[in-house]
Amino acid sequence: MEVHEAWERIRNKSSEWWDQLQKKFSPYIDKLDEWTTPPTLSLRIEDEKITLLHLEKRGESIRVISLKAIPKESDLIDISEFPESAICVSGISAARCLVRTLELRGIKANEIEDAFRFQAETLIPYPPEEALFGKILLHSEGDHHELAMIAAKAADVEESSEGFILKGITPQYITSDVVAFACFVKTIIPSDSTIAFYLSRDNSFGIALNDGKL
């Protein structure tokens, strides 16, 4: 099971939880006692280990402060303890989502949603009623629009969130590894056109960005 959890602005909204978080992870994260700004801490929870990624944003840049894998302990994390101020994000793997580019011509701005859905349904290898769709507007000029389609099976999205749902927590956001990686690449490679690859033992993929858009 993969679960991504993100916390932002915790110090300002929940000082008690922030203190508990520091105590739990201080043995594993570099310079935790020197945090002076609210960080983003992401976790990847697997059967035998937990991978922790600690990021800090300064201006438009993102700095990786720490990346560590530690053995999983049953009492290390209890997501039912999350405060309401925590931001909970679920991510679906790149292998379970589709990203395609769509062009809509002769379409008014208020017609984009219907036209997008009509074209998107023809590009997926499963019934439309089993799918969830997202879109990113890449370019728009008059009645010509270019969009990126992101689609996944509803069942896969539910599965990616089941660790939260079983605890009675509904993720505020659902994203994809592909989209998350694209956002990260944009912050570290200030280029209009970029090709980047994510490589791991279990899941590797590539992305192309044009004008900073997937």
Fold and architecture overview:
The chain has helices spanning 10-13, 15-25, 112-120, 154-160, 162-165, 177-188, and strands at residues 4-7, 40-45, 49-58, 61-71, 89-92, 97-105, 131-141, 144-153, 173-176, 193-198, 205-210. Strands 1-2-3-4 form a 4-stranded antiparallel beta sheet, with helices on one face. A 3-stranded antiparallel beta sheet has the order 6-8-7. It is built from 6 helices and 11 strands. Residues 1-14 have low confidence and may be disordered. It folds into 2 domains: 4-87, no CATH class; 94-158 and 186-210, Dna Ligase, domain 1 (2-Layer Sandwich), CATH 3.30.1490.300. By secondary structure, it is α+β, with helices and mostly antiparallel strands. The two termini are 26 Å apart. Helix content is 22%, strand content 38%.
Summarize the structure.
This protein is α+β, with helices and mostly antiparallel strands.
Shape-level CATH architecture of the largest domain: 2-Layer Sandwich
Strand content bin: 35-45%
How would you sum up the major sheet?
4 strands, antiparallel
Low-confidence stretches: 1-14
Total beta strands: 11
Helix content: 10-25%
Properties at a glance:
6 helices, alpha+beta, 4-stranded antiparallel sheet, globular, about 20% helix, about 210 residues, about 40% strand, 3-stranded antiparallel sheet, single chain, Dna Ligase, domain 1, 2 domains
